[in-house]
């Protein structure tokens, strides 16, 4: 039906779609800031002002950390795409931030897959979706590795009441699901959206090892930067914690928050709930913890989403798709 529409009509709907994405992203950000049941934005603002936490020096340093965080993500994406197509840093920047804005209100940032694919011609889109999956899974792997170590140290160091029966049941269900998926993957005739599992496996096997290595390194560096940013905020808010002890809790928090399905815009709520529980064990008050989580959300997601809105509005379809 779309193909039968006049060119100008299609252009109008395309512009309307871009504006709707940006307006939707801004509305959800505003909605989250003004209707947060855990932390009222006025209380949050007054708390920051009364404690005089943010000097120009501190704000500058925090923004620099956020910039490095996203710089590494952009370089990681550029290196992955280089496998099939050379793109400039500017293009990688546009695709990374633009897809972030477009996926803000989608569950678990699922919209990022389609948003990044839209920047490329149709014959490359399936590969781009798989590369996006690889980048996200590599970041998740780093979160699981660091988080697993941190959670183990946290449990052994603090007296945590764990329901081992429920934990065993959860692990059993997880093992069964993993086994079913593994057996399904072994059947080469299984297809997803017209793409066979066999072709997907071959696709990942053909990616050079150095690209996996660089992807892993970028993911580790990103993790270390935003974890240190969280620790730095803890220090600004007057929490006296040694770096090692703080990292045990921070890594545990990111692991537990990552395994809970969520809509990306409510990610701050989930991380806030997990962080409040973990940090309350060592005596950090709830307002301080929620304020730090909110600052992290503003610095690493809201700020780049606002920048990404410019790229969404200026986005143009590849010529072969537009025609």
UniProtKB/TrEMBL annotation:
Its main location: membrane. The keyword Transmembrane applies. Keywords: Cell membrane, Membrane, Transmembrane, Transmembrane helix. It is a multi-pass membrane protein. The chain crosses the membrane at residues 12-33, 53-72, 128-155, 167-185, 212-234, 246-269. It is found in: Cell membrane. GO terms for cellular component: plasma membrane. This is Flippase-like domain-containing protein.
């Amino acid at each position: 039906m779309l193909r039968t529409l006049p060119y100008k009509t299609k252009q109008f709907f395309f512009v309307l779609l871009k504006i709707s994405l940006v307006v939707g992203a801004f509305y959800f950000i505003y909605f989250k800031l003004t209707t947060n049941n855990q932390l009222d934005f006025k209380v949050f603002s007054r708390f920051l002002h009364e404690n005089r936490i943010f000097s120009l020096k501190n704000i500058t340093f925090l923004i620099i950390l956020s910039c490095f965080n996203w710089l590494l993500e952009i370089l990681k994406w550029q290196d992955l795409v280089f496998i099939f197509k050379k793109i400039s840093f500017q293009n990688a920047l546009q695709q990374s931030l633009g897809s972030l804005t477009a996926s803000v209100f989608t569950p678990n940032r699922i919209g990022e897959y389609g948003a990044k694919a839209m920047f490329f011609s149709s014959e490359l889109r399936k590969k781009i979706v798989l590369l996006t999956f690889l980048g996200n899974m590599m970041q998740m792997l780093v979160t699981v590795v660091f988080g697993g170590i941190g959670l183990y140290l946290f449990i052994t160091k603090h007296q945590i009441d764990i329901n081992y029966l429920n934990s065993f049941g959860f692990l059993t269900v997880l093992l069964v699901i993993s086994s079913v998926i593994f057996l399904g993957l072994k059947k080469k005739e299984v297809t997803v959206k017209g793409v066979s599992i066999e072709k997907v496996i071959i696709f990942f096997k053909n990616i050079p090892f150095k690209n996996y290595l660089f992807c892993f390194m970028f993911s580790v560096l990103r993790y270390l930067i935003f974890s240190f940013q969280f620790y730095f905020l803890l220090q600004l808010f007057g929490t006296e914690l040694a770096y090692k002890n703080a990292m045990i809790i921070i890594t545990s928090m990111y692991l537990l928050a990552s395994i809970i399905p969520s809509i990306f815009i409510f990610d701050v709520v989930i991380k806030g709930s997990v962080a409040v529980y973990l940090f309350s064990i060592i005596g950090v008050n709830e307002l301080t913890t929620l304020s730090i989580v909110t600052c992290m959300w503003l610095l690493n997601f809201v700020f780049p989403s606002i920048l990404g809105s410019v790229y969404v509005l200026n986005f143009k379809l590849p010529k072969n798709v537009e025609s």
